[in-house]
Amino acid sequence: TGEVSPSFLAELGVRFVEIGHAERRRHFGEDNTMIARKVRAADDAGITPLLCVGEETRDERSATGAGRAAAFVHQQIAEAVGGDWSLASRLVVAYEPVWAIGAAEHAGARYVAAVVGSLRRLLAAHSHEAGSALGELPVIYGGSAKPGLLPALDGVSGLFLGRFAHDAENFGKVLDEALSMTALPEALQRT
User: Residue 106 catalytic?
Assistant: First the structure.
């Protein structure tokens, strides 16, 4: 990831591109300036940027930890879009606490819900600038995400799977969970 031009990806029909993953930041030195360039280039090519954001330090037991994490993530998003909140309206946000990536356990469901809820409130404050409801932006969770987690997460739009998606059975379980949470269209309910 991170080495293919957006125009080439667009020619291939790619609709989403992951930008800003913690491993790209750590191993390749990608900073917020580079990530902002990539977000803009993907958007210019008609590809939806899936922006990876997340705090480095675990603070989920602190009463104010979720608020601090949300503020940090909000700042990452602001820098990734260069303050252009209309560009932010075209993102999918992958909230992935760096400390949870590859860990034995994911972040606690209440903590994730608190971070995402606080983040949605912070984003909603920019809705007028964006011309759309930023508080409703898709926010997916990653960071040791696995079967059984999605139903426990409030306010999250989906999961950003890593190693657990490499196992077809685990991936199938997550898909089944997602499908069970999705309301069927009325036409299908009658059949």
Answer: no
